[in-house]
Task: structure prediction
Amino acid sequence: MPLYEHVFLSRQDVSAQQVETLTETFKGILEANGGSVAKIEQWGLKSVAFRIRKNRKAHYTLMNIDAPSAAVAELERQQRMNEDVLRILTIKVEAHEEGQSAMLQKRDREDRDDRGGRFGDRGDRPRSGGFRGGDRDGGGGGFRSERRPRSEESEGGAE
Result:
């Protein structure tokens, strides 16, 4: 049977228990139509990129599905009719990922240290002092072509 990754978003005002109940209902639909669910991951309440039906957040749930296409079509039909489901996405895959999905994996701090950290030295650029530049007199940069003392600037504008 074909393999699918299926993600659905539930409204922000439903509880985590209600999301689990929804997931079990959808799992039952798949099993009744000859499919099976290999893995279910609750990603939790996360912000969405834009408002969906007046919701700024949603409960994300991933299901790894092994089912015929008719079972997936029935699942999507039932989800479109459900008021608590905001969005669905089903992707056909060659094989399911082993272990946790990318959303649940934590980044290794060792990788971050190897790259120099978030604000560390880049290594590929000289540290010149930022926008102001690295002039010997400490100034430089800015928008003027040459540096004049302040007293000349104020006298020159009075003429």
Observations:
- The chain has four helices and four strands.
- Residues 112 and 118 are 7 Å apart (CA to CA).
- The longest strand covers residues 36-52.
